[in-house]
Amino acid sequence: MSSPVEIPYKSFIKVDRNSESAIYMQITNQLINAIQRGFLPFGVKLPGTRTLSQILEVHRNTIVAVYDELFAQGWVESLPNKGTFIIGKNDEKPIDFNDFDKINLKNYPKFTGFSFKTSNILDNPFEHSDCEFILNDGTPDIRLTQIDQQSRIYSSTLKRKAHKMGHYNQDGSEFFKKHLSQYLNLSRGLPISNNNLLITRSTEMSIYIASEILLSEEDTVLVGALSYFS
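^ thats the sequence. predicted structure below, dont judge the formating
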């Protein structure tokens, strides 16, 4: 692979010293993003910690923490007396840095790079507002909730044969999706929100839904290793 100095790291790694996120995590997430988008393909040798720290104008220990985090997440491998290399597929080709869109590097793609079947069954009829202020007739103060009385009502309702408490939000818990999207942003460099997540009951259900959307009858599927059988 060509010398790592030829890769313009400062063009796709921006350090915001006023951000609440740690500097080493900012660099880590942007490197992961560059790996996922093909700017750092398989086999690329990353610069040494001292060299990259001089390029990005940060402390060397910060780059050491970045490489440790990348190694812990499985993005790189460290070879003795050789250096740190990107882990990936052998057939990946580097993208011309003169042609890439810097804005799209930080945004979640609006369109997939493949075709899939669509169905109105999966359409979400609910809209969630991101507005800071909501003008309506008012909302109750949850601190005044009568927990004991409410728990007794819930208990008696659930014990009835024809109870109406079996309904739930088909999209999953918004609280859970919010924190899961934040976790994926930090750990995998995925700039997604809770609107990009679909919560299922199990791994098998996730695989089933994905296969129903992507696959058609008589399609050929190749897998790297056998796992679930159907």
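The chain has seven helices and three strands.
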